[in-house]
Amino acid sequence: MDIELVRFMFLLTVVSFYVNLALSIYGVIAKPNLVKKIIALTILQDSASIFAVLVGYKLWRPGLTLQPPVLTDLTPTSETLKEFVLRSVDPLPQALVLTAIVIGLAVTVFLTTITLHIQKHFGTVNVDVIGRLKREEVYEEVI
Amino acid sequence: MDYVDLIFAMMGLSALLSVVATALAIRSKDLLNAVIFSSVQSVAYALIYFLLLAPDIVLVYVAVSVGIYPLILILLIKKVGRYETKQNWEQLKGGDV
Amino acid sequence: MILILVLSLTYLTYLGGLGELPPNDVRLIAKNYLNLTYNPYVKSLWASSPEAVTAIVWDYRGLDTLFETVVFYGAVLAAITLFRKVAKEKDMLQSKGMSVVVKRATAIVTVAMLTVAFSTALHGHLTPGGGFQAGAIGAVAPLVMIVVFGKRYLEDRGLSYGRLLSLRNLALTGIGVTSIALFTYALIQGGFSFIFQNQGKSLSPYSFPSYTLDVPSGGILLFFNVFEFLAVLAGFTLVFLILLGSDELLSKEFEGGENGY
Questions:
Q1: Domains of chain A: which residue ranges?
Q2: Chain A environment of C39 (Cβ under 8 Å)
Q3: Is C32 an interface residue toward A (CB < 8 Å)?
Q4: Contacts of residue B58 in chain C, CB cutoff 8 Å?
Q5: Distances from the Cα of C44 to the Cαs of A8, A53, C48, C160, in angstroms?
Q6: Contacts of residue B71 in chain C, CB cutoff 8 Å?
Q7: From B27, which residue of chain A is nearest by alpha-carbon distance?
Q8: Which of C39, C82, C132 faces A114 most closely, judged by CB atoms?
Q9: pLDDT digits (tens, 9 = 90+) for C157-199
Q10: pTM, full prediction
Q11: pLDDT tens readout for residues A47-85
């Protein structure tokens, strides 16, 4: 195991997730199209949740093989359990991210239906145009 | 180079791939292309989840992010129009403003 | 400017914002969970499930997951509410669907998908998997069916709004009943038990069955996984059924929309 290469690649991974976060926040804020905003929002959500899983990871050491948090032995002795605790990664962030992904999908489906309504109501999904249309509506009502 | 190096090399390279895919997805004017680039990013993330030893998340992430997201977004794009055009005010109102 | 900001944030993270990355060891609470999840020597605290993630999702942090289910229920309910006029109607457009080859292939693959999803839910406490995963895998099947066969074809064969809604409510009622089943049982026996209790604690000896035959059954986890699978599957199918309606059907919802909501 080459510790320099491992450190470098891990740094590269962390930098990539930060760049992804920055790009998707830019997409949510700056792009006027609502569908583009939804796409950027899904990327933002995934990047945020992958950080949680990253915290639960563990450094590989010589002679230590990591494993997912699943016990394969159905009749464990106390030695097996000790080795399992030593080798397994953190299950807590995985459990939290798991539910967050499914709920994110439900919320995205809700955003999709709202976008369909906006499209039918205003004839466009561009937020700049929608803002001007609404101002025009209010202005006419005042007159 | 043993397999631990290989694991971390794959992780770093797929993270780089996800950055490229995200940048293209945000930049692209064609919304259909944006959805496809976003699902490429999801494939890279699924690989990273697998390398981070989270098989539970891979099971749910592949189905949700590579299967269902693109399908409902393509459905939405079919109804709202494919291109991210610069619709301006004059076009919308027929030029009488 | 943005580049500098991102790089400095990364540097801070690497210095210790998230701890040392990758961390040298997992935290103490994770070690606790890992040690106790299938530890037959400490039977007052175990979950009888070799899969630590499912044990945390439905046993150690069960109430969290219950409220996540409530959020999920609310999000799907809100999506349906926006299309309440058309939700109960059949589609007026008789779609021919795709070609015969695609239809036959899809019919076979759909059965396989649902089987995989159900087995993921049933084995959720033994292998990676569980209710949420199974629901997400299973929700792909009706989505593909609706695209390939057409919505009206499925509606004529019994896939209706009312049935999906009752399946969903049944599954959520199942989650509720399971969480208080042991409490009620203990009350009838004249004893005392906690709500959301899986295995026997030191204060109350009542417990869901730990083993079926000689395989660990995880007690409460098995029931929760199956009910959550049904709830997620039915919820997503409901939304897809509405979203995949034809334009003629959906435009009925928007009639009168120009006067405001």
A1: 3-142
A2: 76, 81
A3: no
A4: 128
A5: 45, 29, 11, 46
A6: 143, 147
A7: A27
A8: C82
A9: 878 888 888 999 999 999 888 888 888 888 888 777 787 777 7
A10: 0.88
A11: 999 988 888 888 777 777 888 888 887 777 888 888 888
The span from the CA of A96 to the CA of A54, in Å, is: 13
Q: Which amino acid is at A140?
A: E
**Crossing angle of helices A91-122/B69-80, nearest 10°?**
10
Q: Where are the domains of chain B?
A: 3-80
Domain ranges of chain C: 32-250
As given in the structure block, the two tokens for residue B58 are 């891979």
Q: How far apart are CA C56 and CA C65, in angstroms?
A: 9
Question: CB A109 to CB C79 under 8 A?
Answer: yes
ipTM confidence score = 0.87
**Inter-chain touch A91–C13, beta carbons under 8 Å:** no
Cα A84 to chain centroid distance, Å, stands at 29
Nearest to C172 by CA among C69, C82, C67, C79: C69
Contacts of A100 (CB under 8 A, 6+ apart): A45, A49
pLDDT, one tens digit per residue, over B37-80 is 999 999 999 999 999 888 889 999 998 998 899 988 998 898 88
The CATH fold of domain A3-142 = Helix Hairpins (1.10.287)
